[in-house]
């Protein structure tokens, strides 16, 4: 059995950021990261890849190149946790013991929860920005559509960045307009929820955006099946259970998401399946040597990289305090950010906290569409990610 002082599950945004910050705080720490993937992706770029602004490979780096120096990379994935014994088992059958555990494996994309989707995605007008294998097809199908119905979906439950499903809808609508085919295309956005956005200050502006663009918004529509041969999207109405059929020519699907199965089925999980942590300290509610952040955690805020940027320093501070048997004084206030792209020259930068109130960075009104904020998303935030967050600097 191998053993590490600090074991981090997940080498994505959260895992690498935490590892880098821990190394900067104390270079003598014995830290290992369990991550199966060869590639590391800056996933917020995939919206812009789907809109034709970047290529899929622009979002990728080699995992080995982002792993902090001095941190051991275990190229494997977790099969099960045994937190009472301070150990876990990997898919390859290795048992690894730890003194402290940080769980941040990201979110699981449940393609098979929508009947017919897994087989159809990437073909015949069915696309999704939520995989590196399929994101390129989004731009291909947007360009190819000259008339008919373009359909965009948002499922029930938590997804990566709650505003992301509508971003690609607005980009596609903008492209159709620029290509001179907008008057021949019906753009429909469906959501299982009751409104476009959770925070009223931004929701009201986004409703104006959708109205201005002529986007047909339909709420309480939950996609349950894609019939690729007949090009039919089958919905269940969330209130009446009525079956609703919408014919499409192109459909961008945001699949249902959840915590990974090995988390949801473990002693670490809450009733909802996420890693059960205190929403301020990020410490597990039952195992004091376990912490969690990011998409797999139970933190009741939008699941974004920007949220992780604020969570990581709190977690590191509290983890080091726990190791030193000192009080945990770091407190996360639920800050998250969702840069909602509204076209090829505009973006609304939504920032808010647990209270649902704006927690904005800039002095101007971020509830308005701005070209400068689109430039921030295209160039500023990727630079901050690769050279700031993943280096433990921001």
| Total helical elements | 10
Q: Count the strands?
A: 21
Which secondary-structure class do the elements indicate? alpha/beta
Q: Do you know the CATH architecture of the largest domain?
A: 3-Layer(bba) Sandwich
CATH topology category name of the largest domain: FAD/NAD(P)-binding domain
Biggest sheet layout: 7 strands, mixed
Q: What is the number of independent domains?
A: 2
Calculate Rg over CA atoms.
Answer: 21 Å
Show unreliable segments: none
Q: CATH-wise, what's the superfamily of the largest domain?
A: FAD/NAD(P)-binding domain
Strand content: 25-35%
- For the record, what CATH class of the largest domain applies? Alpha Beta
- Give the CA-CA distance, first to last residue: 35 Å
């Amino acid at each position: 059995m191998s053993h590490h002082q600090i074991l981090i599950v997940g080498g994505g945004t959260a895992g690498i950021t935490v590892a880098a910050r821990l190394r900067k705080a104390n270079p003598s720490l014995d830290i290992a990261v369990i991550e199966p993937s060869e590639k590391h992706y800056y996933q917020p770029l995939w919206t812009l890849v789907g809109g034709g602004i970047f290529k899929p490979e622009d979002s990728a780096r080699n995992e080995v190149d982002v792993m902090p120096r001095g941190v051991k990379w275990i190229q494997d994935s977790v099969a099960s946790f045994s937190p009472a014994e301070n150990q876990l088992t990997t898919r390859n059958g290795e048992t690894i013991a730890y003194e402290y555990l940080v769980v941040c494996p990201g979110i699981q994309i449940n393609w098979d929860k929508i009947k017919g989707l897994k087989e159809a995605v990437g073909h015949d007008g069915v696309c999704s920005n939520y995989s590196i294998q399929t994101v390129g097809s989004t731009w291909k199908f947007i360009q190819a559509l000259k008339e008919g119905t373009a359909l965009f979906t948002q499922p029930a439950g938590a997804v990566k960045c709650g505003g992301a499903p509508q971003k690609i809808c607005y980009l596609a609508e903008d492209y159709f307009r620029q290509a001179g085919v907008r008057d021949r295309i019906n753009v429909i956005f469906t959501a299982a929820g009751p409104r476009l956005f959770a925070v009223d200050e931004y929701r009201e502006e986004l409703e104006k955006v959708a109205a201005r663009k002529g986007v047909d918004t339909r709420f309480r529509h939950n996609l349950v099946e894609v019939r690729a041969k007949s090009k039919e999207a089958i919905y269940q109405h969330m209130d009446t259970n009525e079956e609703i059929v919408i014919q499409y020519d192109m459909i961008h699907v945001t699949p249902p998401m959840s915590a990974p199965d090995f988390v949801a089925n473990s002693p670490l999980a809450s009733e909802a399946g996420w890693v059960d942590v205190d929403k301020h300290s990020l410490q597990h509610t039952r195992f004091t040597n376990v912490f969690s952040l990011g998409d797999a955690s139970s933190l009741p805020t939008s699941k974004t990289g920007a949220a992780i940027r604020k969570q990581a320093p709190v977690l590191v501070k509290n983890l080091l305090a726990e190791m030193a048997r000192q009080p945990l004084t770091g407190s996360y206030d639920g800050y998250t950010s969702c840069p909602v792209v509204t076209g090829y020259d505009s973006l609304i930068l939504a920032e808010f906290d647990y209270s649902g109130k704006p927690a904005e960075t800039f002095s101007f009104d971020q509830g308005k569409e701005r070209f400068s904020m689109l430039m921030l998303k295209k160039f500023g935030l990727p630079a901050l990610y690769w050279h700031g967050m993943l280096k433990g600097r921001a």
